[in-house]
Design goal:
Helix content is 56%, strand content 4%. It has twelve helices and three strands; from the N terminus they run ααααααβββαααααα. Mean pLDDT is 84; it is low at 90-97 and 263-279.
Length: 279
C-alpha cells in the first residue's frame, strides 16, 4: 500500500495528503544524498535532519509538525520510530502532573458505568483503557480472538507497541461476555469507519466522563483519555517494578517507561543514588 493510500484510508483530507507527500519527497531527497535507506535511519540521522531544518530558522511549531509527520510515516512503515523518546525543549511531557490515583480511577469507573449515554461497547473500551492501560489506537487492533475469557486474559497484538498479555479484572468479564456474544472470533472487537469517527468517539467518552464527574461533584482532575494509560503505568511501576511495567506497557525502550515514574519514586531513587552512586 502506498503512503498516499494509507493516509486516505486514515481519513485525511486531500489537501493534507498532498502536504504529507510533498514533505516525504523532500525527506527522501535529503537522505538520498547520503545514500541512506529510510527504513534504516537511526536516531542520530533523524536528529541531524531536524537540526538542519532548525538552522533554516523554522518556527518551533513547524518542527513539532515535522515530528508528527515522521511519526506518521513510521506508523505507515510499521517500524519503531527512532525519535519516539525525543522531546523538543519547551514541549516537555506533562503526564506526571496528570497522574490519577487508584481511588480516582475507580471513581471514574463507577461514574462512566452509571452514564446512560455510553453504550456497552464504550464502557468495555473505557475499562480496557483504565485497567489494562491500553493506548487508544490499540482498541482498533483488537479482535474477539484476542480475548481469553476462561483464563481472564487479553492478548494485545503488536503495532506501534509490543505484543503482550495482560490479565482482565473480574468485573470486566460479564460485560465482555455480553458484548461479544454471537460474534465470530475473527470479528473486530470495536468498529471504526475512519479517523474522524475515532476522534468523535473518543471526544464523546471524554465529555461524558467530565459531565458525570461534575454532576456528582467529584473533584477529580480528569482531562483526557491518555491519563488512564499514564496513570496505570505509574501504578505498575510502583507495584510491579520497572521491568514488569515496561512489558505491560508494551514499550520498546525502558526510558519510555521511566518517564512515567511518580515524583515520590524519582525522589527516592535520587536519594538512593547519592548513597550508592553505582546504582
Amino acid at each position: 500500500m502506498s503512503f498516499e493510500k494509507y493516509l486516505k484510508e486514515q481519513g485525511y483530507k486531500a489537501t493534507t495528503v498532498q502536504r504529507y507527500l510533498a514533505w516525504l519527497k523532500g525527506f527522501k531527497l535529503y537522505f538520498s544524498i547520503e545514500n541512506k535507506q529510510l527504513n534504516k535511519l537511526t536516531y542520530n540521522d533523524l536528529l541531524g535532519y531536524l537540526n538542519d531544518k532548525e538552522q533554516g530558522n523554522l518556527k518551533r511549531s513547524t518542527l513539532v509538525l515535522l515530528l508528527g509527520r515522521i511519526k506518521k510515516y513510521y506508523q505507515y512503515l510499521k517500524l519503531e520510530n527512532p525519535l519516539t523518546d525525543f522531546k523538543l525543549k519547551g514541549y516537555e511531557s506533562s503526564h506526571k502532573a496528570l497522574t490519577l490515583t487508584k481511588d480516582q480511577l475507580e471513581q471514574i469507573i463507577q461514574v462512566y458505568r452509571q452514564n446512560k449515554r455510553l453504550n456497552l461497547g464504550s464502557k468495555v473500551a473505557l475499562s480496557l483503557l483504565i485497567y489494562q492501560g491500553l493506548s487508544t489506537h490499540e482498541l482498533s487492533l483488537l479482535s474477539i480472538h484476542h480475548l481469553d475469557l476462561q483464563r481472564a486474559e487479553l492478548n494485545i497484538p503488536s503495532n506501534r507497541l509490543l505484543e503482550r498479555t495482560i490479565a482482565l479484572e473480574a468485573c470486566q468479564i460479564l460485560d465482555l461476555l455480553n458484548f461479544t456474544q454471537g460474534k465470530e472470533p475473527a470479528n473486530l472487537l470495536f468498529h471504526y469507519r475512519n479517523t474522524s469517527q475515532v476522534q468523535n468517539r473518543h471526544y464523546h467518552w471524554k465529555n461524558q466522563i467530565k459531565v458525570e464527574l461534575k454532576k456528582q461533584g467529584l473533584p477529580i482532575p480528569f482531562n483526557n483519555l491518555q491519563q488512564f494509560r499514564n496513570s496505570r503505568i505509574a501504578h505498575w511501576i510502583n507495584e510491579e517494578g520497572i521491568l514488569k511495567a515496561q512489558y505491560l506497557a508494551g514499550h520498546h525502550r525502558l526510558s519510555s517507561t521511566q518517564q512515567h515514574q511518580s515524583e515520590d519514586h524519582q525522589a527516592l531513587r535520587a536519594a538512593f543514588e547519592q548513597v550508592h552512586p553505582l546504582f
